[in-house]
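Entry type: protein chain
Record version: 2
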Amino acid sequence: MFTGGILTVSDKGSRGERPDESGKAIQTCLAPFGIRWAKYEIVPDERQAISDKLKEWSEEGLDLILTTGGTGLSPRDVTPEATLAILDRIAPGFTEVMRAESLKKTPFAMLSRAIAGIRKSTLIINLPGSPKAVEECLEVISPALPHAIETLRGEATECARKERDSK
């Protein structure tokens, strides 16, 4: 079992003016993976608030933190910068595949500035703010999440599949 946190980044959501449908979408999409959601919070689109929460949760040893919102081009969209500020290493494959698959559905996917990376042994991935986009992105990255987390925990050492003997 993995422990996770969902950090929704939304000015309106943090003021109680908008329900958090994207956070619910994350929980629903990843329910089959048995993640224990230990943390959940909505913060405004403020760089320091986002960075502080990501640092706090990674210090607590969560395996996975998913952010939703704040990855676009508007002046208030600062989630990628807040995330980059606290990462030890980046893991670009997650966001590369999310953008590539999303581009098959909408040209607006290229506007995403989402990033992914590792702080200590916590995998942190920025997701879009739209529930539909969250679902589409999680569909494509979720198969790799268990192995990524096991690898970060030091539990998975072999990534390559053994070739079957063709004789």
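Comment: The radius of gyration is 16 Å.
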